Amino acid sequence: MEQMTVGIIGTGGIAHAHMRAYQQMPDVRIVGAADIVPGKARAFLDEFGLKDVPAFESKEELLALKPECVSVCTYNSTHAECAIAALEAGCDVLCEKPMSVTLAQAVDMARAQVRTGHILTIGFQPRYDPNMMMVKDIVRSGELGHIYYIQTGGGRRRGIPGPTFLSRETAGVGCLADIGCYGLDMALNSIGYRKPITVSAYSADYFGKNPKYCKNADIFSVDDFAVALIRFEDGLVMDFRMSWAMHMDTMGDTLFLGTEGGLKVKSPHPELNWGGAWDGTIGDVYLYHDMCGETVCTQVPLKPNENDRFYRKVRAFVDAARAHGPSPIPWQEIIYNQAIIDGIFRSSQLGREVEIDIPEIN
Ligand SMILES: NC(=O)c1ccc[n+]([C@@H]2O[C@H](COP(=O)([O-])OP(=O)(O)OC[C@H]3O[C@@H](n4cnc5c(N)ncnc54)[C@H](O)[C@@H]3O)[C@@H](O)[C@H]2O)c1
Q1: How far is 132 from 154, CA to CA, in rounded Å?
Q2: Whole-angstrom Cα distance, residue 252 to residue 248?
Q3: I need a labelling partner for 154 at 20 to 30 A (CA). Which of 55, 69, 178, 194 fits?
Q4: What pLDDT digit, counting tens, does each position of 268-303 carry?
């Protein structure tokens, strides 16, 4: 089988997971990597035994090689410019989550995808967790009746990440997008993405700005805590909660309330300081329903979780590129995720409810 050519933009932490996945694929050949930090892309390629593969300090030099596939593994604030440049250079693109910082950037990315016709997929590896898939199957089965309320829970007790996640310049937004996008995707992918119309939110930065809790407090300029009430076009209401740091083990479970049943998805590991985010797996799952006039709670058995979500995410991208589509996790879904993040940010800044207005994309 002919090998697909692949380039990687941004060679920090998550690029390693992409590279590990690509290196397991005989039908893929890495043709280059780029990072704006001098020497970083070279060291990255060397680490993976790719001493003959060229390293660059700009995406433009890498894109001049015209790789068929590009992973965008840069920090949030440069996702849009890198993904758009790659699409316009003729590449299919796997962009890390969150899609971008602002809704306007996400719209630009979506327009670039439409203009070029190449694949744009956003890297939500929890989609490939068998238990996340099971939650989606239960929610979509109709067993819960009409779903009118969702609470996204989770959150970390102590889980403020590294420096590029902490400033407006590189990250753009804090926990609300970094791990909040996972909670949103879990909920919205389960019910089928719907159009959000308003958001009323609050965010805080008490832990990030305090050197007692954050060793990079001097550069901290994003949120470490965010809550919001989101209304959707069809009347659905979502209660969003997320935290990188707090004096609590979890902001709660994820709940789907329907007219015929309710589903509780517990946080994966609230006992661990870092364990309560929805970035990979889930905790126990309970179905609440009535049976013969009695109120019943059934624990849903979890499936063995043996597959490598990161590999499957990258493999799904390469398969889509080979087949010329469709995108495994398309912007048509994730633009709503980003619109909510954008709305939470704006509402928190303004201290009042805001409307979400997603422009026409064609
Ligand atoms: N899917 C996951 O589980 C997961 C896990 C961690 C991070 N991420 C996401 O991946 C992204 C990167 O996270 P990370 O931990 O690897 O961060 P990082 O800071 O370790 O790496 C980002 C790299 O991108 C480089 N970069 C930034 N702008 C660039 C540009 N224009 N051109 C070339 N290089 C550029 C930086 O110099 C840096 O080396 C973030 O958006 C984050 O949300 C996803």
Answers
A1: 14
A2: 10
A3: 194
A4: 888 898 888 878 889 999 999 999 999 999 999 999
Q: Are 189 and 329 in contact, with CB atoms under 8 Å apart?
A: no
> Hey, whose CA ends up nearest to atom 39 of ligand 1?
12
Fold of 4-125+309-330: Rossmann fold (3.40.50)
Residue nearest to atom 21 of ligand 1 (CA): 12
Domain 4-125+309-330 identical in fold to domain 128-304+342-355: no
Predicted structure pTM score: 0.97
Give the pLDDT of residue 280.
82
Cα 74 to middle of ligand 1, angstroms? 3
Tokens, residue 54: 């060229």
Q: Which residues of 190-205 are buried (b: 16+ CB within 10 A; e: fewer)?
A: bbebeebbebbbebbb
Q: State the CATH architecture for 128-304+342-355.
A: 2-Layer Sandwich (3.30)
Residue 347 and residue 251: Cα distance in Å, rounded?
Answer: 20
Q: What is the mean pLDDT of the chain?
A: 96
How many A from CA of 27 to the centre of ligand 1? Answer: 25
Q: Is 10 in the pocket of ligand 1 (CB under 6 A)?
A: yes
Q: What's the mean pLDDT in 216-220?
A: 98
Whole-number Å distance, alpha carbon 76 to ligand 1 midpoint, is: 7
Tokens at 235, concatenated: 């009347």
Q: DSSP string of 189-255?
A: HHH----EEEEEEEEE-TTTT-TTT-TTGGG--S-SEEEEEEEETTS-EEEEEEESB-SSS-S--EE
> Would the CB of 170 count as within 6 Å of ligand 1?
no
